[in-house]
Structure formats: C-alpha cells, structure tokens
Amino acid sequence: NAAATAAPATPAAAKKISLGFAQVGAESGWRTANTKSVQDSAKEAGFDLKFSDAQQKQENQIKAIRTYIQQKVDVIAFSPVVESGWDTVLKEAKDAKIPVILTDRAVDSKDTSLYATFIGSDFVEEGHKAGKWLADKYKDTKEDVNIVELQGTTGSAPANDRKAGFADEIKSNAHLKVIASQTGDFTRAKGKEVMQAFLKAHKDIDVLYAHNDDMALGAIQAIEAAGLKPGQDITIISVDAVKDGMTAASEGKINFIVECNPLLGPQLMQAVNDVVAGKQIEKRIVTKEGVFTSEDAKKVLADRQY
Ligand code: GYE
C-alpha cells in the first residue's frame, strides 16, 4: 500500500511564517522603540523576520518591498515614510498574492484592497489634543500669541495630520497665530537648526508646537543657547512621550506632551497570524493613547519603558 510507505508530509504548522518589514529609518526615539517592539514581538511569535531600514527614503522602502516580493515572504508590513506614491508597488504585492499590513503611517491610495489593515494612531486626533490644550491655556488672552511649528517629515501622515488637527483646534481664537512653520524631519539635529532660524527671524515667539519630542529636544538646545528658558519664556508642546521627552517635561522644559504609542509589535504579529490563517480582520486598528502635563510626566517617568 503506497500511502502507508510514503513519507509523512511536513505539517504546515511547522513552517515558520516569514514577515518582511520595511521600516522608515531611525530618526527618533519613537522609531527606536517601534523597531524594538517589532523585532521583539516577531521573535516571540516565532516568525522569520526580514527587517530593512529605509533611512527616511521612499525609494529605499520600495526597493525593500520588491525584494520581499521576490523572496515570496508570507506577509509584508511597512510604515510608509510618506503618504503618496505607493499604488504601483502595492499592486505588485497584490499580484504576487502577498498580503500587506500598514503599521504606524497610512497611505493615500484610493484602492483599499491593496492592504489588509492599517494599525496605528489617529494623528489628526493628536493634533487636536495639542491644539485644545493651547486654546484652553489662552482662552482669555487679549493679545496675540505667536506660535512657531516644527513639522515632521514633509508628506508624511503624522506631519500632515498633526498640523491639520492643531490648526482646526486653534482657528476659533484669532489671537492664536502660527507665524512660522517648517519641517524638522522628525530629528533632533534638524529641530535645533530650524529653531535657531526661527529665533533669529522672530523676536517674539510665545509657543513652539513640535510634531515630535526629538524636534522639541533639539529646539530646547537652540532656545537655551539663545539665553531663553524653555517652558517659561517659550511654551512648548510636543507629541510622542518617549523617555527623553518625558524627562524634559518633568523638568518643566516641555509643558504638554500628546502620547503616541510606538509599541505596535504585538498587534502587528496578531494581525500577521490572522491574515495567514485567512481570517477576516478589521481594516483599521487604532492604538490607545493619552496626554501628559509636566506634573503628570513627573509621576510616570520612572516606569516609562521607552
Ligand atoms: O511621532 C516620530 C517618528 O510615524 C508616529 O515618526 C510616527 C512618527 C513619530 O519619527 O517621532
């Protein structure tokens, strides 16, 4: 009897799931925590993780995704550096029948069948939280409040959305004026450089709104070098709540931080398991997050993991 002598087929469960992950870069403390979360949870899930760092360049991410398609990985996940320009490569993945999961940042593709789900924060909401705190603080002001803004990477979902949510929240008070707004590319070095230029061009800055902690931390160096007190002479609001940002907040140098959770690894691995198992999953998975004043930051700093 042929069936009895044939070698048993390898059970499907014994094969490791392969996951190709195309990361944005290593531009911030948030990104470092996010990378660690992805790597740690892939290991824990027993996946074969192929990881690449695009150094904040879309062309590098597209190349990495094409390599994963050639390698026939089971699932591709990536955090798109900018929102637009993904349709072609996403169609290539679809044609190869490899499911794609977006993590952290969204794409603006009209065809939502190009990806299985998008796991990440609501960046517009984060902008609203930042703007609301400021609008409350200055609700009785009779004078103009001059705001400078350090935007994230040009064309990225968090930069577009954090700007929009904030603008929407402050527009009801004509005294709240954004007098300068430029990209600091989510990095400390660029945040410092652009803040230096802002301070040179404007003698009367009241508020800095930075789209992430790293740019705020760079700007703090520029503000101190100019002989001013961050958090006092200039009110500072940022987004992320990574450890260095929370430390600056606990010292009163950042006045308000909107949290953005980088620990997306566990949710991502769950989604990978589900798509491989052919389960129907939610098209949008939103992460939960809060806000911190200097006082709040002091209380939770010691337990902050990233
Ligand atoms: O806020 C910033 C990072 O996409 C949410 O990217 C992420 C942002 C985060 O560089 O620090």
Automatic annotation (TrEMBL):
InterPro entries: Peripla_BP_I, SBP_2_dom. Pfam families: Peripla_BP_4 (PF13407). It comes from the Bacteria. Keywords: Signal, Sugar transport, Transport. The keyword Cell inner membrane does not apply. Residues 25-279 form the Periplasmic binding protein domain. It is found in: Cell envelope. PANTHER family: D-ALLOSE-BINDING PERIPLASMIC PROTEIN-RELATED, GALACTOFURANOSE-BINDING PROTEIN YTFQ. Belongs to the bacterial solute-binding protein 2 family. This is Simple sugar transport system substrate-binding protein. The lineage of its organism: Bacteria, Bacillati, Bacillota, Bacilli, Bacillales.
